Amino acid sequence: MPGWLLPLVDAAARARSADLTRWGIAPPEGARAAAVLVLFAAGATGPELLLIERAEALRNHAGQPAFPGGATDPTDDGPAGTALREAVEEVGLDRAGVTVAALLPELYLPPTGFAVTPVIAWWHTLSEVGVADPAEVARVERVPVAELAEPANRFLVHHHPSGYTGPAFRVREMTVWGFTAGLIDWLLALGGWAVPWDTGDVRELPPRAIELATRQPPRDEQAPPAPPAPAPADDPIAPYEPVGPYDPIRPYERLRRDDPDAAGDSGPAEPPGGGAGTVG
């Protein structure tokens, strides 16, 4: 495993759900289990992340950039098994070339009723990937971590009148927002890749993103109502993120390896463009 991934893996071992979300809501009994694959690879310019853009016809998160993943099947071997199986189905990933590095805490998403486990993995033997299931995936991208960390590509998105405000990224002609952007924000900070950016740059969600996020499926396809979330019930987009201003002071700073309150002290990670184990 490359040295640039170790600080993130170490932090993940100590993380709690409350470190990763401002909600901090424990999954209720009956929440559906799911997992996403946070797959890191070594690219020509440093670490890369595998992202997909979901098909617009999907009921949940239609048209949104995301990590490969989905609901757990009874035959899956835990969250890692779910994440890898979904990646095989969605993008044709060769799972033999992947090593699971760590599991992040389960995160509850009230809008869909899913309890999602992010699975951090190292793509040690690259294989060809692409749209394997057009019904679920519209495109596949390997995005450099340096591109995600670039301040010019970072901003906040806001939707009035719901009060939704959260981090976002503009990369590869995609606006990454919501759960995926929040998770990437956390990954950059804990991996030691984050650099200062303008948190005063607040933009409205693109109209198409709002349209897809608020679209209601046909009544006979609607999922059972999820437990209530701390957001206005009359606005269908509000539950996707906590209400209120984005807070750049993160409670998960305690997880940094270079934090005096954290166990051990091996220093911060290398920058995105280099570091031990980077293949150029």
Ends distance: 15 Å
How much of the sequence is in beta strands?
25-35%
Order of helices and strands: HHEEEEHEEEEHEEEHEH
Query: What's the level 1 CATH class?
Result: Alpha Beta
Poorly predicted residue ranges: 219-246, 248-254, 257-280
Distinct helical segment count: 6
Quickly give the structural class.
alpha+beta
Shape: globular
Report the sheet with the most strands, covering strand number, pairing sense and barrel closure: 8 strands, mixed
Computed over alpha carbons, the radius of gyration is: 18 Å
Q: Into how many domains do the coordinates divide?
A: 1
Q: For this structure, what is the CATH homologous superfamily? A: Nucleoside Triphosphate Pyrophosphohydrolase
Mean pLDDT: 79
Q: What's the CATH architecture name?
A: Alpha-Beta Complex
Q: Assign a percent range to the helix content.
A: 10-25%
Number of strands: 12
Question: How would you describe this structure to a colleague?
Answer:
The protein is 19% helix and 26% strand. It contains six helices and twelve strands. A hairpin with a 2-residue loop joins strand 1 and strand 2. The two termini are 15 Å apart.
